[in-house]
Design goal:
With 287 residues, the chain is an alpha+beta fold. The chain has two domains: 2-116, Aminotransferase class 4, branched-chain amino acid transferase, N-terminal domain (D-amino Acid Aminotransferase, Chain A, domain 1, 2-Layer Sandwich), CATH 3.30.470; 122-283, D-amino Acid Aminotransferase, subunit A, domain 2 (D-amino Acid Aminotransferase, Chain A, domain 2, Alpha-Beta Barrel), CATH 3.20.10.10. The chain contains eight helices and 15 strands. Strands 7, 8, 9, 10, 11, 12, 13, 14 and 15 form a nine-stranded mixed beta sheet that branches. Strands 4-3-5-6 form a four-stranded antiparallel beta sheet. The site of pyridoxal-5'-phosphate (PLP) has 14 residues, from α6 and β13. The site of pyridoxal-5'-phosphate has 14 residues, from α6 and β13.
Length: 287
């Protein structure tokens, strides 16, 4: 396996970063997770735009332009002979001194890791997920905006720990006002009376690329779709609930905080959306 690091490709065993890298010391950096379906990098320009936006927000200069990053990703896939893959693109502040001032880091580090895809077991899609809401709140947009996909994922990790403690596979974060924001690394949708609802970005969610793809798909399929804030009550009483994300695609939720959703099996509309999504990604070509 070949990893892009320090401007060239190195073997996985040799892919090591300095302990002085501020990505390691402080979580100072940004990243993307991207899928490759049958050799097509799915929504690459959207992912790159989000990466550059995240970087701009934290005043991190990415040392390559979009075309150069695209070329590096294509090379990484070719070198690793991958057709269906998950790509992790990381840009850290790079090596500096022990102080947290980014001014001591002259050269941001760009890393590209591609792996054979480890999809969630198909069984999870057939059975649906049991999830919980947890105490960890989504960080407020006036602190570090949730739109920034930064290397600082401690909040999300706390959510995952709480999910583990509760014995469920995933958990939902609420915002300070108690509105449902998102999962630890997935966006949420609910369906009630044939209408789809998903929290707007300002509630405190990453503007997921899969979320946007599902919104567009749902519009094509003539669903009514509303981006409005909603509460746990709305989730408990929804007809269907599902999560979306690059890794998870579309995955049904069948129980939330012990409340059974619908009849406790993955919803019919969720199934249709997953099928339509998978059909679309197989046809959407980028490269
Ligand atoms: N929310 C968070 C916090 C995430 O890290 C992710 C994963 O990237 C998502 C939502 C889903 O976004 P996307 O569909 O772009 O993968």
């Amino acid at each position: 396996q070949w990893i892009f690091l320090d401007g060239s490709f190195v073997r996985k065993e040799d892919a090591k970063i300095s302990v002085y890298d501020h990505g390691f010391l402080y979580g100072d950096g940004v990243f993307e997770g991207i899928r490759v379906y049958s050799g097509n990098v799915y929504k690459l320009s959207e992912h790159l735009e989000r990466l550059y936006d995240s970087a701009k927000s934290i005043m991190l200069e990415i040392p390559y332009n979009q075309q150069e990053l695209t070329d590096i990703i294509v090379q990484a896939l070719q070198k690793n002979e991958l057709n269906d893959a998950y790509i992790r693109l990381v840009v850290s502040r790079g090596v500096g001194n022990l102080g947290l001032d980014p001014a001591s880091c002259p050269a941001p580090q760009v890393i590209v890791i591609c792996e054979e895809l480890a999809i969630y077991p198909e069984e999870l899609y057939e059975k649906g997920l049991e999830i919980a809401t947890v105490a960890t709140r989504r960080n407020r947009p006036d602190v570090l905006d949730p739109k920034v996909k930064s290397l600082n994922y401690l909040n999300n990790i706390l959510v995952k720990l709480e999910a583990n403690m509760a014995g469920v596979s995933e958990a939902l974060m609420l915002n300070d006002e108690g509105y449902v924001a998102e999962g630890s690394a997935d966006n949420i949708f609910i369906i009630k009376n044939e209408t789809l609802y998903t929290p707007p970005g300002y509630v405190g969610a990453l503007e997921g690329i899969t979320r946007q793809a599902i919104i567009e798909l749902a519009e094509e399929l003539n669903y009514e779709i509303k981006e409005v804030p909603f509460t746990r009550h709305d989730v408990y009483t929804a007809d269907e609930v599902f999560l979306t994300g690059t890794a998870a695609e579309v995955i049904a939720v069948v129980k939330v905080d012990g409340r059974v959703i619908g009849d406790g099996t993955p919803g019919e509309e969720t199934g249709k959306l997953l099928e339509a999504f998978r059909d679309k990604v197989a046809r959407d070509g980028v490269q």
